[in-house]
Amino acid sequence: MILCIGYFIFDIFWCIYFFENENLFMIFHHAVTILGIFGSLYTERSGTEVNASIFGSEMSNPMLQIRWFMRETGKKYSAVYELNDFIFMFTFLMCRMVFGSYFMYCELVHPEPLNFFKVGSVCLWLVSLVFAVQIVNFAVFKYTKMYRRWRSKQSIFGSPEGQVVGEQKNADKVVVKSVNGLHTDILNGGNGIGPQHDVRKRFMQNGN
Predict the structure, then answer these.
(1) Which of 74, 87, 151, 192 is most buried by a 10 A CB count?
(2) Whole-angstrom distance, CA of residue 134 vs CA of residue 117
(3) Residue 117 in contact with residue 49, Cβ under 8 Å?
(4) Cα–Cα dist 85/79, whole Å
(5) Is the CB of residue 46 less than 8 Å from the CB of residue 113?
(6) 3-state SS of 104-154?
């Protein structure tokens, strides 16, 4: 918990120093977490619950950091980026909203924890709920957009005009491939077929 509180103290000052309106909710999240860790260290109680909350809440953090680095290095449109995005959202929702909700219920109904920690668990769950709503909205927007793009491609190439375009593209590829193959064969002195090869063959014969 000492390491965790050091991280949250550093990060909350970072959010304050580079303050934006989007950071306000993150500052609240960090403040609640710091108070919870301090409370556990001071009272020497509920250490298991606090550690479990931190571990479960931060399970999705590695994927979030990988996502940032991939965006910054220009790998946003790769398959690995999309897979990491899905794992991040799935892990976040499962850990915070499914397991986290059950964990909060157990904390509230158990007679042993202090009310301070029960209130803290509710605050953290509400913070997670806000983040979860934002992630769900993002996922709906993202995958709806991807589905519409896929449907648009299917409708284009599924229509008669699209089939003609597709056939024309395939024909162009065959022509380009044939020309490239002939050009490579000629340069390598192979048995190419065509007038260029015949001219080159006659020229070599006359030269000999």
Answers:
(1) 192
(2) 26
(3) yes
(4) 10
(5) yes
(6) HHHHHHCCCCCHHHHHHHHHHHHHHHHHHHHHHHHHHHHHHHHHHHHHHHH
Cβ pair 39, 120 in contact under 8 A: yes
Burial (0-12, 13-18, 19+ Cβ within 10 Å), 198: exposed
User: DSSP states of the chain as a string?
Assistant: -HHHHHHHHHHHHHHHHT--TTHHHHHHHHHHHHHHHHHHHHHT--HHHHHHHHHHHTTTHHHHHHHHHHHHTT-TTSHHHHHHHHHHHHHHIIIIIIIHHHHHHHHHH-SSS-HHHHHHHHHHHHHHHHHHHHHHHHHHHHHHHHHHHHHHHHHHHHSHHHHHHHHHHHHHHHHHHHHHHHHHHHHTT----SHHHHHHHHHHHHH-
The reply to whether the predicted model has a pTM over 0.70 is no
Cα gap 208→109, rounded to integer Å: 100
Are 118 and 50 within 8 A, CB to CB? no
In this structure, which amino acid lies at residue 32? V
Confidence class for position 57, pLDDT limits 50, 70, 90: confident
142-178 residue pLDDT tens: 999 988 888 888 777 655 544 544 444 454 444 334 3
